[in-house]
Amino acid sequence: MASTKPGISVQYGENATIVTFLNEKILEEKDIKALQDSVMSVIEQSEQINMILDFGNVKFLSSAVLGMLLRISKKIYERDSQLRLCNINPKIYEIFKITRLNKIFEIYSDLQSAMEALPGQN
User: Fold this and answer.
1) Distance between CA 85 and CA 56 in Å, rounded?
2) pLDDT tens across 29-84, in order?
3) What radius of gyration do the chain's Cα atoms show?
4) CA distance 77 to 101
5) Which domains does the chain have, with CATH numbers?
6) Can you list the alpha helix ranges (DSSP code H) found in 5-85?
7) Which of 42, 11, 7, 10 is closest to 22 using CA atoms?
8) What is the distance between the alpha carbons of residues 31 and 26, in angstroms, rounded to a whole number?
9) Whether the Cβ atoms of residue 87 and residue 55 lie closer than 8 Å to each other
10) Sign (positive/negative) of CA torsion 6, 9, 13, 18?
């Protein structure tokens, strides 16, 4: 089952909730706030959640998105849950490296490897 909220698509899998960012550019403050609200509402629907954020469509993002990711991460870890990021454009990944966020987030090259890295997957 998949549902769509502003700027994201949500798929509920057996062991993970996959949130795919639909927009190529995530730059505007209002868009980032809407994305954060949408993702937070998905998190709040479950007491515990394994979430994968799929950046496959994203080519450009502002630094404010990094703050949004930290807030999402905090909310997920407060629920003793798991967060994975995947399909990050190489140019965007450089920003994660420069800011050392690649040390904070578990980042995978594709959705399959992110799913396999979740607890309970063999």
Assistant:
1) 10
2) 999 999 999 999 999 998 999 999 999 999 999 999 999 999 999 999 999 999 99
3) 13
4) 16
5) 2-116 (3.30.750.24)
6) 29-44, 63-78
7) 7
8) 7
9) yes
10) negative
